[in-house]
From TrEMBL:
Database matches in Pfam families: NAD_Gly3P_dh_C, NAD_Gly3P_dh_N
Record-annotated Glycerol-3-phosphate dehydrogenase NAD-dependent C-terminal domain positions: 188-327
Reactions catalysed: sn-glycerol 3-phosphate + NADP(+) = dihydroxyacetone phosphate + NADPH + H(+)
EC number: 1.1.1.94
Gene3D superfamilies linked: N-(1-d-carboxylethyl)-l-norvaline Dehydrogenase, domain 2, NAD(P)-binding Rossmann-like Domain
First-tier enzyme category under EC: oxidoreductase
Highest taxon listed in the record's lineage: Bacteria
Keywords, comma-separated and alphabetical: Lipid biosynthesis, Lipid metabolism, NAD, Oxidoreductase, Phospholipid biosynthesis, Phospholipid metabolism
Organism this protein belongs to: Sphingobacterium corticis
SUPFAM superfamilies: 6-phosphogluconate dehydrogenase C-terminal domain-like (SSF48179), NAD(P)-binding Rossmann-fold domains (SSF51735)
Identification of the protein by name: Glycerol-3-phosphate dehydrogenase
Entry similarity comment: Belongs to the NAD-dependent glycerol-3-phosphate dehydrogenase family.
Length: 336
């Protein structure tokens, strides 16, 4: 049961990563009140009655009093000082549609979304600043490497907490730290957000190659080229003295490219084995952020005239009816 205090946190979303976030916040020992927005009223009732999410990470116990889990988005915003956005990027616009800039005023907004907003070609921080006038200084970004499934089983994991306001980064980090979660602080909100978007595309590429039968040797070359593409891209958009080998960049790429829990790698493997995009989406019943990110990133690549062979290959396969084996063979000639 949550304890009431002046620190109120609202978590927006009910997928696996949102459920893992609820677990982290609940296991953290700081006094606080957690409000959880869940889209489906049937899921709200299930959580209230049975104390677990019926659809994702159902083994995680969530001992909420009835009034603290709700499908009323405005209520959660009104009662929370800190808002954690944890929906798929593809659904963010529709989820936030009932809100106005006044609902965000004065709040610290935490993006735990590793995706880009379709149709806007913006990472979440930029979208919030543009549409809801949230100052970038009020935004905190949660980076990886961290899979929800390992959080649920309390395996030691690391989160990178980034903000231009060090006090906000420290406050959010202190709320997420548990005996199985360690945090690293950063100020690079733009680089970490874009790296989180790009690594999903590269994990898709790795999955496609796995589905086609390429081995570990090729995958290693693919991933080493991928981290260079990330470095090239973020430097082009936001030059900074960042270390691309930091856990938030290289670490997040590695876990997404190789892990059994990576839905992007799984999605890519299905494409490599001959599934259509639509059939892969139906069978997975989960959002692979890299699919939507591919089209958005391709627009940015074209706008800035960037040369990113892996990203462009994935786009050709997913959106231009490119044949996976042919496109990967052409890519293989460009890798170093």
């Amino acid at each position: 049961m949550q304890r009431k205090s002046g620190m109120n946190i609202g978590v927006i979303g009910s997928g696996s990563w949102a459920t893992a976030m609820i677990k982290m916040l609940s296991d953290n020992q700081q006094t606080k009140q957690i409000y959880w927005w869940v889209r489906k009223e049937a899921d709200v009732e299930h959580i209230r009655r049975y104390k677990h999410n019926p659809s994702y990470l159902s083994s995680v116990a969530v001992d909420f009093e009835d009034e603290f889990v709700t499908s009323d988005l405005k209520q959660v915003f009104a009662q929370s000082n800190i808002i954690v956005l944890n929906t798929p990027a593809a659904y963010l616009k529709s989820v936030l549609e009932p809100l106005s800039a006044s609902d965000f005023a004065g709040k610290v907004i935490v993006s735990a979304i590793k995706g880009i907003v379709p149709g806007e070609n913006m990472v979440v921080g930029d979208y919030l600043a543009h549409v809801y006038q949230v100052p970038l200084e009020q935004i905190v970004v949660v980076g990886g490497p961290c899979h929800a499934e390992e959080v649920s089983s309390e395996r030691l994991s690391y989160l990178t907490i980034a903000s231009r306001t060090s006090d906000h980064a420290q406050s959010v980090a202190s709320l997420l730290e548990t005996r199985y979660i360690k945090t690293i602080l950063s100020s690079d909100i733009i680089g970490i957000e874009y790296a989180a978007v790009l690594k999903n595309i590269f994990a898709l590429a790795g999955g496609i190659c796995h589905g086609l039968g390429f081995g570990d040797n090729f995958q290693a070359v693919l991933v080493s080229n991928a981290i260079r593409e990330i470095d090239y891209f973020v430097e082009a958009l936001d030059p900074s003295d960042r270390d691309i080998n930091h856990s938030a960049y290289l670490g997040d790429l590695l876990v997404t490219a190789y892990s059994q829990f990576s839905r992007n790698r799984t999605f890519g493997a299905m494409i490599g084995k001959g599934y259509s995009v639509k059939s892969a989406q139906v069978e997975m019943n989960m959002v692979a952020e890299g699919y939507y990110a591919s089209a958005c990133i391709q627009s940015i690549i074209a706008e800035h005239q960037l040369d990113m062979p892996i990203c462009q290959t994935v786009y050709q396969i997913l959106y231009q009816n490119g044949q996976p084996m042919q496109e990967i063979k052409k890519l293989a000639e460009k890798l170093t």
